[in-house]
Write a structure and sequence with these properties.
This protein has 343 residues and is an alpha+beta fold. Helix content is 20%, strand content 36%. Strands 1, 2, 4, 5, 6, 7, 8, 9, 10, 11, 12, 14, 15 and 16 form a 14-stranded mixed sheet that branches. The protein is globular and about 70 Å long.
């Protein structure tokens, strides 16, 4: 599909587009005081596919310069919605190379193109970083030719480090995961498929008392498919980045250009949402994994949010939306959860 006098072509991505997509990602960074590049390895298309059942990505090609100008799309996932597995699409957002900012004028047509390739999905959702204010302002304002971005809630992601072993943990307690199935399915947007590659390679950790499961999670190393590269610091973080924060129990600030040694917590369960047990368990898991940084996030209305907020952690916020195309009815309802590993 060609636009702007055939200068640009919009089409679904194929494996040969990986180099151009990598270039677009390398030119991006998270806005805010901590500037981070979010990268997806040698094959971004394989990385997207690992986060669900399949990735459906589109690219905008500059036909004159033979360059990839933008990439966007969705990861199709099987998630619980109202306790039932549904086919959902996580929209990754349209990432435009800085060289093409304000030069591409068919964004609405690109969304319509993507929607046509997602007709078999039951629900659509996305997240936008708090600091990305211009995108939030644009998408929250209703446009006749664009889908509605229905705000579902704020999400906080916490980054914490290995601390000390507070609890005795069992590793790869397979029975625990099966026993907690009903707990997980009670949260809308929790994955119904537990073995997506995007969770990373890792282990299940559990804490039991008298056979009763008190706490449980999966901790995965996903650096094979996703990398966070530090770009730089601004504002107060420029000063904090030079302080020995690790001595105080917080993650150390990596030097600009460094790739973070990170892991991600998924399928977190804590008995009775006990805040003390939650913190002790996460600190113990962090010690076991040895990663410089562990990530876990949840909507602010999640019952474990306050417990995680008491961790010595750096954090960033996002806004969670259900994306509703014209004529569709909203389907995503509380209680909500989503796994940071698959975003």
């Amino acid at each position: 599909m060609n636009f702007q006098n055939d200068r640009y072509t919009l089409r679904m991505a194929v494996p040969g587009d990986d180099p151009g997509i990598r270039e677009v990602f390398a030119a991006q960074h998270f806005p805010g005081g901590i500037s981070v590049q979010f990268l997806r390895g040698e094959s971004p298309l394989a990385s997207f596919a690992a986060d669900g059942d399949e990735g459906r990505m589109m690219v905008i090609i500059d036909n004159e310069a033979h360059r990839t100008a933008a990439v966007g799309g969705a990861v199709v996932q099987t998630l619980f919605v109202g306790g039932v597995p549904k086919r959902c699409a996580y929209l990754t957002g349209l990432k435009i190379h800085p060289d093409y900012q304000k030069r591409i004028f068919f964004i609405a047509r690109a969304y319509a193109f993507l929607h046509e390739h997602l007709r078999d999905c039951d629900a659509f959702y996305t997240t936008i970083l708090d600091d990305n204010r211009s995108v939030i302002a644009m998408l929250e304002k209703k446009h006749r030719s664009m889908p509605e971005y229905r705000f579902l809630g704020h999400v906080t992601t916490y980054g914490f480090r290995d601390a000390k072993r507070c609890l005795d943990l069992a590793v790869d307690d397979a029975d625990a995961f099966a026993l907690l199935h009903d707990y997980y399915r009670g949260f809308t947007l929790t994955p119904a498929v537990p073995d997506y590659g995007g969770f990373g390679k890792g282990h299940f950790y559990s804490c039991r008392e008298g056979g009763r499961i008190r706490a449980f999670c999966f901790a995965g190393d996903q650096r094979a498919t996703k990398q966070y590269r530090m770009s730089g610091y601004g504002g107060i973080y420029r000063m904090l980045s030079h302080l020995p924060t690790a001595w105080l129990g917080y993650p150390a600030f990596p030097k600009p250009g460094a790739t973070l040694d990170h892991g991600v917590i998924s399928y977190l369960y804590v008995e009775d949402h006990d805040p003390v047990l939650c913190r002790q368990f996460l600190r113990s898991v962090a010690k076991e994994t040895g990663h410089a940084l562990l990530l876990w996030g949840c909507p602010d209305a999640h019952p474990l949010h306050d417990a995680a907020a008491a961790l010595k952690a750096v954090h960033y916020g996002s806004r969670l939306y259900e994306v509703v195309w014209d004529g569709d009815a909203p389907v995503l309802t509380a209680p909500l959860h989503l796994e940071t590993a698959l975003l």
